[in-house]
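Quick question: what would this complex look like in 3D?
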Amino acid sequence: MPRTPGWEMLIVWYFFLGGIAGGAYFTAVIADAFGSLRDRPVARVGYFLSLPLVAACGILLILDLGVPTRFLNMLRVFKFWDPMSIGAWALGVFGLFAFASSVLSLSPSDAHAALRRKIGLVGIFFGFFLAAYTGVLLSNSAQPLWSDSRLMGALFLASGASTGMAAISLIMFLVGASAGEGWQKVKHADRFSMIFELVVLALFLILLGSAAGPLVSGRVAPLFWGGLVGVGLIVPLAIEFVAHRVKALGAIAAVLVLCGGFVLRYVMLMSIQA
Amino acid sequence: MARTLAMFTDTSLCIGCRACQVACKQWNELGQELPEWTGTYQNHHHFTDKTFRLVRFVEEPTPGGDLAWLLMSDVCKHCAQAGCLDACPTGAIYRTEYGTVNINQDVCNGCRYCVSACPFGVVSFNRETGTARKCTFCNDRIHNGLGPACAKACPTESIQFGFRDDLAARAQKRVETLRAMGFKDAQLYGADSKGFLGGLNAFFLLLSKPEKYNLPSDPKVPQRHVVVDSLLSIGSAIAVGLGALFAFRNRGDGNA
């Protein structure tokens, strides 16, 4: 019978932070390329957030290797059908985009802004990829639950969006950039992402059927229902809809969404691993 | 490519002596491990990073109320469609010219995706070397004209080594003989190169259902859903992207 790979807390953190990095980046690009000038703070926070996070992702992945000094061996081959192989490549390429976008955000020049938007429109694909591929990686293994989940990638992407947007809104609140229209817009986008995530999660469970046992009734079930569905999605959505005019509550909702994103990765990885 | 080599393990001939398990340990210098209590003579429960050949002792109730043994010397299947090989992002896992699957210990960086991808739970992570380990089909021996150590040591020819096509024909005859003798559940596992995983280069003759031996009845290629899962992820990206686009395009007041 299949043996679990022993991907534990380092990988939980990687999946979580990688989702935020990807989600923050693609949100930033959309705000940058399609928003107004007043949405610039959203773009800037998103770019600046994605850069340290992608660096942290690389470090976490390297530390998790059995032989960390051989991490460059990941780039010996390119297997387009293998999530682990293209994931390693895409993480590196995404890092370059996050770096370029962040550097160009520092410049006040219009020419640099135009270049940044063009770069962003290419980099956005790597942002989406980074948020989703970890789910596809799990679902293409021989493990029960993981390999039965057709929507793992879609769910991770939705969570990457909701947590990436929550992280942007939280940072804007903390640095006092929540007065403008941009903050409202990113909160608006985050509400949509959370609702979408709930829908995907429901479909995910329906498609899994009895294979969802380890999640919905196993050891991690209290975390799944309480931490992810309750505290991580329903409570922050309720806060957003009932009390969205109170900014401090909006910030608390963002913290809860981030907690939910972490719990999602934790329960997916740990439910079938000892 | 040279003619494909194979191992045929005929469990009807196994006497549970574990000469294969010991020969494997010795030839491959696999070192000592703490034993595990499994409730039977079997040790260990499953393959480990230092146990590449494992004799399974399955106790089966007989109609008379006694227990009878199903014995089976289990090993890496060297699948024609190997999940571990497809999963490996470093190219450390490769197929030899004889059709066997091997892990280059100097290249493996210990990401463990192969461990998660093996339908049989064969590949194991070694904490000391930081690499994934499994049966090498005695790669050094077969490249020097010798059979694998396990097959060499087997005193009953339960483990046979040779060219795959020869062994598959021999296995087919043997299973027919056993069925004629009254072993109704006698069946080949992985001998058919048109069957699951494109056939196994280490295949088996079993006396009962695969599940009895802790083998999946219908193992599947782990990467078979990459395209569907990716398309669904793209759909998710489009939905989320449109949501964000809508939010940033419309000068929403936050109530929407």
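Answer marked as accepted. Chain B has a mean pLDDT of 95.
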